[in-house]
């Protein structure tokens, strides 16, 4: 059969042009959404009396058969048929005959492809919220296990103040919580129906867009037909939210890589998530976090790629917009892979509590607390800072830590010291002294874990509800 749009043409399409312009190699991923949209469209055409009932039924039956055949891998897509929309229409016409050609009444590929993308992405967004929730669950689980684990907290990657390891992990729970919120919020914009916009201006047929929206579970329809077919904001938004998710994963990756090094030995990733070296038998490499860190770059690339495609496009549809798909699919695959691995990798990670504790014992991360002690005795903080700076310098020169100093040594630096400082300097005391909302004191972290657990349950409920709605 010749091209579905071949009427106006007198020459065959150049073979290279056909290959260059075709999108079937990648948009075949939208087959199910394409048929889902077509079913709603043709049902509406019937309800509006635009097509007779027997045609509608034939087309519906045909579309169901085509979908089954695609699922079974029985349909061979052809580059000559350009994209998934034309390939499916062709398969339908092959199946039910010329009546299949009535499906495209009152519709354009421009509003059709946009609808497919909305249907596709809203499912992915719900799945991603589910995957992020699982990762949060793993982090919260480890946090519960590590409520008694003290570890150096860092700024500038220099030891700063001791914190609970649980508190450190809960910081990531907060980050992924914001990612979840962003994805949930984007759902309402994704869940807007473009179909009915036609090629750009609407259609001459008396269609009912709201009926189509209702059937497909869209909460609203695009207000403006030009905008409906030109809008790819929802994909940019997704790629941008995905970039933040990957950035968070990449920061966590960097820490896992550092913590698993011999220099730190804070954690050990399970063998199942590491690989070896082909030459150095002793090696156990943290390949998963390394690759996630690396793949973050390609997700940023997908975002910048699409922003750049869109930046000068005149209204309405332009073929450039076909470039919206590969980056989106790539980001979906990349982020799915990362999140699927991260949750079990975190859950099975061994935490070397002793090593962390030893690190805390061998640093000056309790220095702020003796400064605060002197402040409690009436010394202005600036002066206290100076005194403790000198005390630390003395320790470094004499190869000691603060807890090794005798009271006489302390008193050389300030007469305000008394033997209560030995209590103040204990890491447990240092941690628990930070008893402010959001701080590292054990009760605060326990409360934060409790709140996170409630939130986890809420998110799980949202996922369950929206998995159904986004089908
Ligand atoms: N394959 C096209 C895309 O992905 C579908 C829309 C084509 N529309 C057109 N007028 N050529 O953007």
From TrEMBL:
Keywords: Amino-acid biosynthesis, Arginine biosynthesis, Cytoplasm, Lyase. Residues 364-432 form the Argininosuccinate lyase C-terminal domain. Residues 7-301 form the Fumarate lyase N-terminal domain. InterPro entries: Arg_succ_lyase_C, Argininosuccinate_lyase, Fumarase/histidase_N, Fumarate_lyase_CS, Fumarate_lyase_fam, Fumarate_lyase_N, L-Aspartase-like. GO terms for molecular function: argininosuccinate lyase activity. One of its GO terms (biological process) is L-arginine biosynthetic process via ornithine. Its EC number is 4.3.2.1. Gene3D superfamilies: Fumarase/aspartase (C-terminal domain) (1.10.40.30), Fumarase/aspartase (Central domain) (1.20.200.10), Fumarase/aspartase (N-terminal domain) (1.10.275.10). SUPFAM superfamilies: L-aspartase-like. CDD domains: Argininosuccinate_lyase (cd01359). Pfam families: ASL_C2, Lyase_1. HAMAP family: Arg_succ_lyase. In the N-terminal section; belongs to the lyase 1 family. Argininosuccinate lyase subfamily. Belongs to the lyase 1 family. Argininosuccinate lyase subfamily. This is Argininosuccinate lyase.
């Amino acid at each position: 059969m010749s091209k579905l749009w071949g009427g106006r043409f007198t020459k065959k399409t150049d073979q290279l042009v056909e290959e260059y312009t075709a999108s079937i190699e990648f948009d075949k991923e939208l087959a199910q959404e394409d048929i889902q949209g077509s079913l709603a469209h043709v049902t509406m055409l019937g309800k509006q009396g635009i097509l007779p009932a027997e045609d509608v039924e034939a087309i519906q039956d045909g579309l169901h058969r085509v979908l089954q055949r695609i699922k079974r891998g029985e349909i061979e897509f052809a580059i000559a048929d350009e994209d998934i929309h034309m390939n499916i229409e062709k398969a339908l016409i092959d199946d039910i005959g010329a009546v299949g050609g009535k499906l495209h009444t009152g519709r354009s590929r421009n509003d059709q492809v946009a609808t497919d993308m909305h249907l596709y992405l809203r499912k992915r967004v719900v799945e991603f919220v589910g995957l992020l929730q699982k990762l949060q669950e793993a982090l919260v689980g480890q946090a519960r296990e590590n409520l008694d684990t003290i570890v150096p907290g860092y700024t500038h990657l220099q030891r700063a103040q001791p914190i609970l390891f649980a508190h450190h992990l809960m910081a990531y729970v907060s980050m992924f919580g914001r990612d979840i919120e962003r994805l949930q919020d984007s759902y309402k914009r994704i869940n807007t129906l473009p179909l009915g916009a036609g090629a750009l201006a609407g259609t001459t047929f008396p269609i009912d867009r709201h009926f189509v929206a209702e059937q497909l579970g869209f909460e609203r329809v695009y207000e403006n037909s030009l905008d409906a077919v030109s809008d790819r904001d929802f994909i940019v938004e997704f790629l941008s939210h995905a970039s933040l998710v990957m950035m968070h994963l990449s920061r966590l990756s960097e820490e896992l890589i550092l913590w698993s090094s011999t220099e730190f030995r804070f954690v050990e990733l399970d063998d199942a998530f590491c690989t070896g070296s082909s030459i150095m038998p002793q090696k156990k490499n943290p390949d998963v976090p390394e690759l996630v860190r690396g793949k973050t770059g390609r997700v940023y690339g997908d975002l910048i790629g699409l922003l750049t495609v869109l930046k000068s496009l005149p209204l309405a549809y332009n073929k450039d917009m076909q470039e919206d798909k590969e980056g989106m699919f790539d980001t979906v695959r990349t982020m799915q892979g990362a999140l699927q691995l991260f949750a079990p990798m975190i859950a099975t990670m061994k935490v070397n509590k002793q090593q962390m504790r030893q690190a805390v014992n061998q640093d000056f991360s309790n220095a702020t607390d003796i400064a605060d002690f002197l402040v409690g005795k009436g010394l202005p903080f600036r002066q206290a800072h100076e005194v403790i700076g000198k005390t630390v310098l003395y320790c470094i020169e004499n190869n000691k830590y603060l807890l090794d100093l005798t009271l006489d040594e302390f008193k050389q630096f300030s007469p305000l010291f008394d033997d209560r400082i030995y209590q103040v300097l204990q890491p447990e005391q240092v941690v628990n002294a930070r008893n402010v909302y959001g701080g590292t004191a054990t009760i605060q972290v326990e409360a934060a874990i409790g709140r996170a657990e409630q939130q986890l349950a809420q998110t799980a409920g949202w996922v369950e509800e929206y998995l159904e709605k986004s089908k």
